[in-house]
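Dear colleague,

Thank you for sharing your sequence with our group. We've completed the structure prediction you requested, and as agreed, I am returning the results in plain text so they can be pasted directly into your records. Please verify that the sequence below matches your submission; if there's any discrepancy, let me know and we will rerun it promptly.
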Amino acid sequence: MESTPDKPTPARKPLPVGNSDWPHVAAHNWLADKTQLISGLLDRDATVALFTRPRRFGKTFAIRMLRTFFEKTPESNAHLFEGTRVWENPEHRAEQGRYPVISITFKDAKGADWKSTCTFIEYAVAQEFLRHEDVFASPECKAEWRAASDAIRMGRSTDAQLSSSLGILAAALHAHYGEKPVILIDEYDSPINWAATRGFGEDALQFFRNFLSAAMKDGEHCRLGVITGILRVAKEGVLSGLNNIKVHSVFEKDFADCFGFTEEEVQGLLATYGHPEKMPEAKDWYDGYRFGGLEIYNPWSLLNYVDDGFTPKAYWTSTSSNDLVTDVLSRMTPRRRDELADMFEKGECLVPCPGDLGPYGTIQNEPRRIWPLLVHTGYLKVLSGPDDNDQAKLAFPNKELRRVFRDEILNPMCRVPTIGDDLQDILASLTRGDAEKFRKSIEAFLVSSASYFDMAHEDFFHGLLLGLLALGRDYYEIKSNREEGDGRPDIAMKPRPNVQLPGVILEFKTPKVPPRASQKRIDALLAAAAREARDQIDEKRYAVEMEAAGLRVLKYGIGFLGKRVALAK
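Please find the predicted structure tokens below.
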């Protein structure tokens, strides 16, 4: 009698549902061969590789595989790789078990503030120092390395010791073994995303810039570095210290088949467990992700689907939190919410979707970033693009994700208050330096909202604009007629510590217009008033304090009369 999926025979090994212990899975469970990841890394010149994939797509499992392959251990792990793709190449085979390995995960490094988050980071790093404690007792170990190791393991490290700890451990291993270590960092962006949504994102960014570059920059003490996370952000952010990194996101073709299941692997899985006829159902529910143009299945959902007796449902729902998605949704304008709802109804859309998300600190402030954010986090897939204008056609990967999108995106979004699109456009154009759009947005608002007689005095215009810009108080400390430099600018906007946006100075002037002046004359006087206001910003050094703090400052002189506005930048 043929056995059922929940009573495995030798040909039907137990499924590794929720098990990321690669050596155990390789020895005892069904396993999809992903060792082409190892071969691909060995064949490329880049010292450091960043892999970004949605949650539950095997990133941690891949890190454990890499550690098992590269790490020099008392007992060889070579037998676990016999018959795999990487074992077919003698040069790659020779790399097995050759190097010391540093392997750290930051998935749980989340505290109520930066100080408590550092405690979790220190604990994660300390586990790896403990794993290599014999290295710090060896003659090759420098006194300062040993002192840092003792402090970190006891939870008493200084800021400098903790931020340089990865570099210290890498240098100590290199000196002890005579081989540069392989460095594996899992979920590097978990504490950064957490911090960015709780007001201490800049602290996290600065720490991880120093932490990663201390060990991996220039490859002095790093044979190979592999970093995993969910989001691809601009390199000038947290990865700015790494001049030797190659990013492999969901948009790139390289390594596209190394995370998730290919169609051939799913066919093999279903056939092994006795139900090859379930392929159409599995495809309908769990296929549809596109990594570098390649169709990929969700491995977490597929394994649960088979293990649960081939019952189709949304296994991916609430497998972990996406704090950054939630934070961006809380800032959605009515227009963006309508676009998301329209996406759900139509099933696809053509929207701005650049390959990366920009620097940390700007993601939450740009609601339009929701589209690439939803691609990176796995809610949507790219059908085509992005093109030269960063336009891409997006769609739901499958039935499962359509339901997850409804439950985790649309339903929570409906419970969050919104802000006006017009006001959002005014703030966004101002902080991006788009002077003409800012001017047009202000004029449009005045035309639709203010009486001509309301505009008789500068105080009214000043108060009106100050009220509009109050929308940005989450991101800026906004001062009105407060001392700056050698005077008092009308409005000064200083970005808050956790926000990576430029400072803004605004100065207003109302021209004196003679009776019966022509429209051409009025326009000329408005432009002159705007230039005078702009010159005053420099003459009275209104931006000196922000510039001294290293901030880029946008300076606007504004001339206004009635509902007409001129602007000088």
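Summary note from our side: The chain has four domains: 34-248, 263-307, 323-413, 421-568.

Kind regards,
the structure core
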